[in-house]
Design brief:
The structure holds 2 protein chains of 2 kinds. Chain A is an alpha+beta fold. Chain A contains 25 helices and 28 strands. Classes of the chains: A alpha+beta, B alpha/beta. At the A-B interface, helix 8 and helix 10 of A face helix 1 and strand 6 of B.
Chain lengths: 736, 229
């Protein structure tokens, strides 16, 4: 069947393209006539939320994006940060939520493929990946199927492509029942003088199509990702793309080889909205027009229409502007890797986006308005209503040991081994810390001492209770995790997942979360260099928990001094740094309250950014000076869970004292800006004396049991089996 | 001593292997593209891990039928040592250079973790730096490492000492029969193994247990080069 280009443009057709009546009027005003069917598709692709950031742009502009090391901030395929010695780390995180709910394996796989392409498009070889995954409640009928499919898809793509997955998150909450989150992160290494951008330069130069052929998969995907789900969700399966990591691996090698020839002027990967988005972005950024001849586009299906070719989201494709005199050399590289290479158009000086097909001009649109001058909204928003503080008297005194074991054996705090053993964490031979610790660490190949640390964090419980503090906390926790490996946090990428921005209370969450993120990034010198926004994460009007995922990168100057979260040896003193009196006080919105008592109450913990910075920089100095043998940040589950994790990872027990006025919050409170470090007894005294924030020796490592104050001793083996048990037991009950 | 790493499209641990051979052997290997018309004159040919041609068919099946494998077969018949790791092992079985087959893991899932290997035959060029019965650490990362062969073949492999490394029973990650992790051909110059010794060769990897395989192999190769040359 062939779709004609002269299909009548009805209000229903406009609505089916996700364009509101006022947006359609804007199109009519802009071009002075009714758009063709292909043009309507192009507008729908460029002006949807996913590509245009029309609801969030106003607020994203407020984020700090600059810093002495930042070479490229948001707006390109990925952010670029200088790591010294002429090298840069190139990274970004991006969501693939909607496709992954519809078709978990391919949705997750192509999410990984897309983010890897963003990184190597810029000339960087990918060296690390992470994935932040959020699923519905474990008992929900779809959850196991989705976990199984998404994890297999992430692994299936990343393992075959050949990038180590070094970190990430997996969480469960009923609020993701109808809308899971798959946020994929990738980082690569490039030479600072060989970074490639998408801005086209020069008139009359060839626009070249590279990679896989164009099929009908993914047509309309970006538009689908910009709408809420209803009960017709299963019908949207054809909008999900199909991944081919084998082609992506060849595309990586071919692109890096091609870049060495000096032929590349500009390069853009074809991600959301494929050929349309990549061509418009290259032209609009370079203040140039683009003319495409669709007859030259390599296709894998017969009788594809211009509409389908322009909106296809077939994977593993690139668009480049090349130096014409190097075209033969470039073609030879792609022929070696058996990939398509076709000149499909040229740059022009008329600022028009023109599309030709079988002799007809099927689209002729102003390129700037399609691209960087797309509509922008200042959507109405209301400030979130904050919950009342938790009444401490309402939390009954309880057995600390039982509480800890319950947390270790719970959906959200048990070991993620079942997940990360399905990912290749070791490939490339540079992984120094693999998943299960505070951050993943990968050494910089070819450098004798340098390494990069990665962490991905957000606590949606906090963000729901208070989007502003939750936004701050996500940044602070990511920064803290990087510190705990011994790295200097450099910069971050944000992946903002929210519900429908047309609802003022959701827009209020977005605004407050971004304000919180901005404040924390500024205070911690931790700029946002790339990111992605995923809105409309709702099903039948019920939104997800606000989930602004923050993924950060840190630099370790000498990985011989890196530390891990597990205890390093017996007989060390354990020092708690940055804690309030009685070591912990805040149980509101804590893991203990939700996962042990089944209560979601209270305010989110306050993040004192000045304290955070003082505590963090002090811990970093201790690690760099070789004064501590292990370090672990305190987060979900508080001091008790942090100590248990350190014991389980090392197989070494510990005995912990009790502060004078201990309460349950001493052990399970989630006060921010805290770390535990271990050191010899003498060094521990020096640490306590030198600390600019509170520091107290709370116990010592040794033996094969963990004893928390007055609680009964628990053997490390018992802790370990509780911790390792939940996930395999949960997934073991599944058929697939 | 001279070695070569053969690269088929879709392999992805060639850089790990090149790094290991370079760091342990002192000189970088030749890197041979699958379409090259000839193989350099080397003492050791390595087929590294990955997903040749995407492994969309049976793992290694397409690479095994390429002209490059004919060249490798000729060299193997002349006694040149051939090491296939992971996808390399799968390619060698598909090409008929080694018996048996690698089926999907018993768990049906990809698995990346550290296992323990026991040296079942220390009297091969690949294992001579280890003691008979020694247990050492080694990572695995594969989806299809479940070694299988018919009873007669297994009996012959066991009787001839062609099983070189076994997973310890409690760390067998994939359901391989007799816990087989590595085998050689009857002549003993072609070895295939699923685990990745190249990812555990230096302190930064958390151990050097895999180094012995390369050190023994490269030294052995250079010794024999000296005696013949």
């Amino acid at each position: 069947m062939t779709l004609r280009n002269d299909i009548e443009i009805t209000p229903e057709l406009v609505a089916n393209h996700g364009l509101k009546p006022d947006e359609y009027q804007k199109i009519l005003d802009l071009i002075g006539r009714e758009p063709t069917f292909t043009e309507l598709g192009i507008f729908s692709a460029m002006w949807n939320e996913h590509c245009s950031y029309k609801s969030s742009k106003k607020w994203l502009k407020t984020l700090p994006t600059k810093g002495p090391r930042v070479l490229q901030g948001p707006g390109e395929n990925a952010g670029v940060v200088d790591i010294g010695d002429g090298q840069a780390v190139v990274f970004k995180m991006e969501s693939h939520n909607h496709p992954s709910f519809i078709e978990p394996y391919q949705g997750a796989a192509t999410g990984v493929g897309g983010i890897l392409r963003d990184v190597f498009t810029m000339g960087a070889r990918p060296i690390a990946a992470m994935n932040a995954l959020r699923f519905g409640e474990p008992d929900h009928e779809k959850t196991k199927h989705l976990v199984s499919g998404v994890v297999a898809g992430v692994g299936g793509y990343g393992n075959s492509f050949g990038v180590p997955t070094v970190g990430g998150e997996v969480q469960f909450d009923a609020r993701y029942n109808g809308n899971i989150l798959v946020n994929a992160f990738a980082a690569g290494l490039a030479d600072t003088d060989k970074i490639f951008l998408s801005e086209a330069k020069g008139v009359g130069l060839p626009v070249v199509y590279l990679g896989a052929k164009t099929g009908r998969d993914g047509v309309g995907g970006a538009t689908m990702a910009s709408a809420e789900f209803g009960d017709d969700i299963e019908e949207k399966r054809p909008t999900v793309q199909v991944g081919d990591p084998f082609t992506e691996k060849r595309l990586l090698e071919a692109c890096l080889e091609l870049m060495k020839t000096g032929a590349v002027i500009a390069i853009q990967d074809m991600g959301a909205a494929g050929l349309t988005c990549s061509a418009v972005e290259m032209g609009a950024k370079g203040d140039l027009g683009i003319e495409l001849n669709l007859d030259a586009v390599p296709v894998r299906e017969d009788r594809m229409t211009p509409y389908e070719m322009m909106l296809s989201e077939s994977q593993e494709r690139m668009l480049m502007v090349l130096h014409p005199e190097k075209e033969a050399e470039a073609r030879a590289v792609f022929e070696k890797w058996e990939l398509d290479f076709a000149t499909v158009g040229k740059t022009t000086d008329d600022l028009r986006f023109r599309v030709l097909f079988q002799g007809d001009e099927v689209a002729n649109l102003p390129i700037k308005e399609l691209g960087d001058e797309a509509p922008e909204y200042d959507r109405p928003w209301v400030a979130p209503t904050l919950p009342a503080p938790l009444d401490p008297a309402s939390v009954p005194d309880a057995d600390i040991a039982e509480g800890l074991l319950a947390l270790l054996d719970s959906a959200n705090h048990s070991s993620r081994r079942w997940v990360y053993e399905q990912y290749d964490t070791l490939i490339q031979g540079n992984s120094l810390q693999t998943p299960g610790g505070d951050g993943g660490v990968v050494r910089v190949e070819g450098h004798p001492t340098k390494a990069l640390a990665f962490s991905s964090d957000v606590n949606p419980r906090y963000c729901e209770a208070d989007p502003f503090e939750g936004g701050k906390q996500a940044v602070a926790e990511c920064w803290r995790n990087l510190i705990a490996t011994g790295s200097e946090p450099l910069a971050a990428t944000d992946n903002l997942n929210f519900g429908n921005p047309e609802r003022p209370e959701i827009m209020g969450q977005i605004v407050h979360a971004i304000k919180g993120i901005g404040e924390a990034c500024t205070a911690l010198d931790f700029p946002i260099v790339s990111g992605n926004v995923s809105l409309y994460n709702e099903t039948n009007g019920r939104g997800i928990l606000p989930t602004p995922t923050i993924a950060g990168v840190g630099l370790i100057e000498d990985h011989a001094k890196m530390v891990r979260s597990g205890f390093a040896r017996e007989g060390d003193a354990i020092v708690l740094i940055g804690a309030p009196e009685n070591w912990g006080s805040h149980l509101g919105q804590s893991a203990y309250l939700r996962d042990v008592l089944g209560r979601r109450e209270g305010t989110a913990p306050y993040v004192d950014l000045a304290h955070e910075k003082k505590a963090g920089l002090f811990v970093l100095s201790l690690i760099r000076d070789g004064k501590v043998r292990s370090a672990h940040d305190l987060s979900d589950g508080g001091l008790a869970l942090a100590l248990a994790e350190a014991a389980i990872k090392s197989g070494i027990g510990a005995e912990i004292a009790t502060p004078e006025h201990a309460t349950l919050a001493t052990w399970f409170g989630e006060d921010q800006g805290r770390y535990i470090v271990t050191a010899s007894a003498d060094e521990a005294d020096e640490i306590v004396a030198a600390s600019p924030v509170s520091a107290v020796v709370i116990g010592s490592t040794g033996g094969d049991t963990l004893k928390l104050g007055p609680a009964r001793s628990i053997s490390v083996a018992e802790l370990g089996s509780a911790y390792e048990g939940w996930f395999p037991a949960f997934m073991g009950a599944t058929i697939n | 001593m001279k070695s070569a790493v053969v690269v088929f499209p879709g392999l992805n641990r060639e850089r790990d292997m090149i790094a290991a051979l370079t760091k342990i052997g002192g000189t970088p290997p030749f890197v041979v593209w699958h379409k090259d018309a000839e193989l350099p004159d080397v003492d050791l040919i390595v087929i590294p891990g990955g997903f040749s041609y995407g492994d969309y068919l049976r793992c290694g099946a397409i690479a095994a039928r390429s002209p490059m494998m004919d060249l490798i077969r000729e060299r193997a018949e002349k006694g040149v040592k051939v090491l296939g790791v992971c996808n390399g092992f799968q390619i060698l079985t598909e090409a008929g250079l080694l018996p048996g087959a690698l089926m999907r893991n018993a768990s049906l899932k990809f698995v990346c973790r550290e296992v323990n290997l026991e040296v079942a035959n220390a009297n091969t060029p690949f294992s001579r730096n280890y003691q008979q019965g020694q247990v050492f650490r080694c990572p695995v990362a594969h989806h299809d490492g479940n070694y299988f062969a018919d009873n007669d073949t297994i009996a012959a492999l066991e009787d001839n000492g062609q099983v070189v490394f076994r997973y310890t029973a409690e760390t067998n990650p994939n359901g391989s029969i007799n816990n087989i992790a590595a085998i050689t051909n009857a002549r003993g110059n072609v070895l295939g193994m699923m685990p990745h010794p190249e990812n555990l060769i230096e302190p930064a990897h958390g151990g050097e247990d895999g180094k012995g395989l390369f050190a023994g192999l490269l030294n052995e190769v250079s010794d024999s080069s000296m005696t013949t040359g």
